[in-house]
Amino acid sequence: MPYLSRVVIAAATAILLAGCYTATPDPEVSSRDAEWLAQVPKAEQDPIYARYMMKDDTGEEPGTIIVDTKARQLYYVLPGGKMMRYGVAVGNEAFGWTGTAVVQRKAEWPDWHPPAEMKQRWPHVRDTKGGPGNPLGARALYLYQNGKDTLYRIHGTNEPEKIGRAESSGCIRMRNIDVIDLYNRVQSGAKVIVK
Fold it and tell me: Of 22, 53, 75, 131, which residue is the least packed, with the fewest Cβ within 10 Å?
């Protein structure tokens, strides 16, 4: 195929997709957030994992979070037939979790307390105070089933280069700016579907 034809097809495809996907600006952040975010390592982002507003095709109620572990995407259903898409890192095969839960707790720059089984696997992990070096990043949404903590979280990360991979111990990791955006939208009690 001639070069000019490929360019025309690529441009036409971009125009058609522009109606389906809308890039969204970063949320406003506090001065503390800005200072701490500046201390977290930066990573190149594959556009497939960028935050986009798009048409909702989930059939779920607004306010619902859906995590597609195979696609490494999290969707937040908005009113008016729209949803926000975010790239995520998910649990590797040995530690992946699926199911339905609710967001019962939300925290900004949370402390990290690794579960006992994680400390057994990796004796070097320690409790860590909230801040730029914390593995939970800027925000955390705590997932519960039947009133019981699942020990799984949707949270930020201090390893943004791993977005798009199956690298975690089961939690759903997001870029810090994306988890701040999601945190600002999500209400306690929100339904979360991880599949």
Answer: 22
Domain presence at residue 1: no
For residue 113, indicate whether it is catalytic: no
CATH code for the domain of 52: 2.40.440.10
**In the predicted structure, residue 83 carries a pLDDT above the cut 70:** yes
**70: containing domain:** 22-194
Cβ-proximal residues to 37 (8 Å cutoff; 6+ apart), any chain: 29, 132, 138, 176, 177
Closest CA to 103 of 155, 50, 51, 59: 155
**Counted domains in the chain:** 1
Q: Is 171 a catalytic residue?
A: yes
Which one from 20, 113, 124, 171 is the annotated catalytic residue? 171
H-run or E-run covering 183: helix 176-185
What's this model's pTM, rounded to 2 decimal places?
Answer: 0.85
The CA distance from 156 to 175, in Å, is 6
Residue 177 bridge partners (DSSP): none
Report the range out of 16-30, 35-49, 173-187 with the highest average pLDDT: 173-187
